[in-house]
Amino acid sequence: MQIDLSVQQVTKTFKDFVAVDNVSFEVPDGQFFSILGPSGCGKTTLLRMIAGLTQPTRGDIEIRGRSMLGIAPNKRPVNLIFQHLALFPMMNVAQNVAFGLKRRREANAVIEKKVEAILERVELAGFGEKQIDQLSGGQKQRVAIARCLVLEPTVLLLDEPLGALDLKLREQMKVELKKLQAKVGTTFVYITHDQSEALVMSDHVAVMNQGVFEQVDTPQNLYNDPQTPFVAQFVGDNNAWSGKIRRSDGKIAEIETSGGHVFRSQLRGPLAPGTAVDLFLRPEAMLIQPDPGLSGLNRFEVVVKDILFDGANSRLLAHPPETDMELLIALPQTRQFDFIRKNDNIEIGWNEKSGICFARDKKT
């Protein structure tokens, strides 16, 4: 398996501030790799170092086995797409796509053939003569990608390219980008703070926090098996309780929460009684009015605060009686709970294997 991009123990400091802290990862040929994290976590700084726009303080960056240290941005086999696409409004689509090839002084006949071929690959065949202001937002995205891909980069870097689009178009472009990357086969390294973008499009995702990678994994594993409290909170929706372990067999613990509940939940690792912990539970893991015959469930009462209707993603916003704690509870699509109303008292149940428990992060 060929490795297109290898980042080895890269650190970037700005005076006393460490923006990227000893980060290492590899991206195989043809993979869609995303770096997901909140604003200010260091992901754009990392992307700029790969592109050559910023030099690392320490470490090395290799593309197909060749170190990029000291290599100018325009000499690297990478191209970078920003959120603001920087298409030339005075040029038509074909001229925009051909721009880099003309700067390389390739022959006109070669340029014409390459532009025609790449526009077909990004499903814009016949759009060459159109002006940029005649295009939709999604079409502009594809022109920007075609302008980069026509130069045949080893790695295409994308810095939150969907951020300026409206919600509906952004949802559509997530699918389009995934299909496009699979079709052209170029390695994509994608930066985003939007977990949905990363999960939908990527083969692997690195979750970044305060300059370090907390977990690099498949989208499925990040969601179903988070390795740290930050990943559990940042990837997908989660309900969280704080508490202490009353007893434990090393895998399952009995946890007394600060709200007075006692739950049984699986542990991320062995934790001794008395340990302060955070317990996380997905909204879809909570059963509404579970069958009394179901054994082994954690059961408790909640008051429905509101019904958040969003089609297939509808939720209940609820809280345990006499507390301010808010819980999100997924509403099944079967409509069997259409009778529930605001201020109703309902029972909730969840299986001990649905929760995940970590030792309390001392930073929080």
Topology:
Layout: E1 3-14, E2 17-28, E3 32-36, H1 43-51, E4 58-63, E5 66-67, E6 78-81, H2 93-103, H3 108-121, H4 137-149, E7 155-159, H5 167-184, E8 187-192, H6 195-201, E9 204-209, E10 212-217, H7 219-224, H8 229-234, E11 239-248, E12 252-257, E13 262-266, E14 276-281, E15 287-288, E16 297-308, E17 315-319, E18 327-330, E19 345-351, E20 356-359
Parallel strand pairs: 3-8, 3-9, 6-7, 7-8
Antiparallel strand pairs: 1-2, 1-4, 4-5, 9-10, 11-12, 11-14, 12-13, 14-20, 15-19, 16-17, 16-19, 17-18
Q: If you had to describe this structure to a student in words, what would you say it looks like?
A:
By secondary structure, the protein is an alpha+beta fold. It has two domains: 3-233, 3-Layer(aba) Sandwich (Rossmann fold), CATH 3.40.50; 237-359, Beta Barrel (OB fold (Dihydrolipoamide Acetyltransferase, E2P)). 23% of the residues lie in helices and 34% in strands. The protein has helices spanning 43-51, 93-103, 108-121, 137-149, 167-184, 195-201, 219-224, 229-234; strands at 3-14, 17-28, 32-36, 58-63, 66-67, 78-81, 155-159, 187-192, 204-209, 212-217, 239-248, 252-257, 262-266, 276-281, 287-288, 297-308, 315-319, 327-330, 345-351, 356-359. A six-stranded mixed sheet has the order 6-7-8-3-9-10, sandwiched between helices. Strands 13-12-11-14-20 form a five-stranded antiparallel sheet. The mean pLDDT is 91.
